[in-house]
Design brief:
The chain is about 30% helix and about 35% strand. It is built from 6 helices and 14 strands. The protein binds uridine-5'-diphosphate.
Length: about 240
């Protein structure tokens, strides 16, 4: 693909986004920086950017094959990927299969309890407000997304869950929960954006329940890099320390 990287237009906690010579595309660059608790905790997870870039791209390709439209276009190198330019809908879209994290705290449910059906919740992406939970009527009333967009987002989120759950079960990993983001193309179509990685999903070993995700960093459990590498190894059959 012959596009040129231009100015940085955004820097998030784990990625930078650059404009390109073609306004339909951005280039995303994955960093090793890790944050938790809305930026209160900072650190570096060596090699994370490379693993998250490659893993996310593999997940997006798998989802595309299964009928989910995503922003993925082409991986350029270890840390950089061309994606379709979208306007991000400012929502964190969270699906849960097993109770954990803030859900367990909020409802007083032990971590690891299997939910009777997957749940879906939204948080408003707003660091200053600490990403508050928000419901459908609030989202529509505030003009964050339309009812039609919410329908598309919900359908997409459950489809992503079905595809990923089955895929991860096949490599001995329980998909506990995950966060996705949706983007709008210029014609208004909703597509899957952001990333799918151990930063944004909870992965537990199916046999031992060992955590293989960012909770090892959030909770100072050690073995953080190794967990990311183990996920990458299971997905690709390759070594994660590339
Ligand atoms: N998550 C995320 N970014 C956030 C908040 C949550 O990627 O800003 C992911 C998190 O990794 C987990 C899922 O969303 O897989 C549910 O997280 P939860 O609401 O339990 O929040 P936490 O306990 O991490 O604060």
């Amino acid at each position: 693909m012959s596009i040129t990287k231009l100015d940085q237009i955004y820097e998030g906690k784990a990625k930078k986004v650059f404009a390109t010579s073609d306004p339909s595309f951005y280039i995303v660059e994955y960093k090793d920086d890790a944050t938790a608790f809305n930026g209160l905790k900072h650190g570096t997870i060596t090699g994370k950017g490379i693993i998250n870039n490659k893993m996310s791209n593999l997940m997006f390709q798998l989802l595309e094959k299964n009928g989910v439209k995503t922003h993925y276009v082409e991986q350029l190198n270890d840390r950089e990927t061309v994606v379709r330019a979208v306007k991000i809908v400012p929502l964190e879209i969270i699906i849960r299969n097993t109770a954990a994290g803030s859900f367990s705290k909020r409802y007083g449910v032990e971590e690891g309890r299997e939910l009777l059906r997957p749940t879906l919740e939204f948080s408003l992406k707003d660091d200053a407000l600490n990403d508050p939970l928000i419901n459908d009527s609030h989202i529509i009333a505030l003009g964050v997304a339309t009812e039609q967009e919410l329908d598309a987002i919900r359908t997409m989120a459950y489809r992503v869950n079905d595809v990923l759950r089955e895929f991860f079960a096949g490599i001995g990993v329980k998909l506990v929960d995950f966060k996705i983001e949706a983007g709008r193309l210029p014609d208004g179509t909703i597509i899957l954006a952001d990333e799918i990685s151990p930063d944004t999903c909870r992965f537990w070993d199916a046999k031992t329940n060992e955590k293989l995700d960012k909770d090892r960093f959030r909770r100072d459990m050690g073995g953080v890099e190794e967990a990311y590498q183990e996920m990458f190894r299971r997905i690709t059959g390759q070594k994660g320390n590339v």
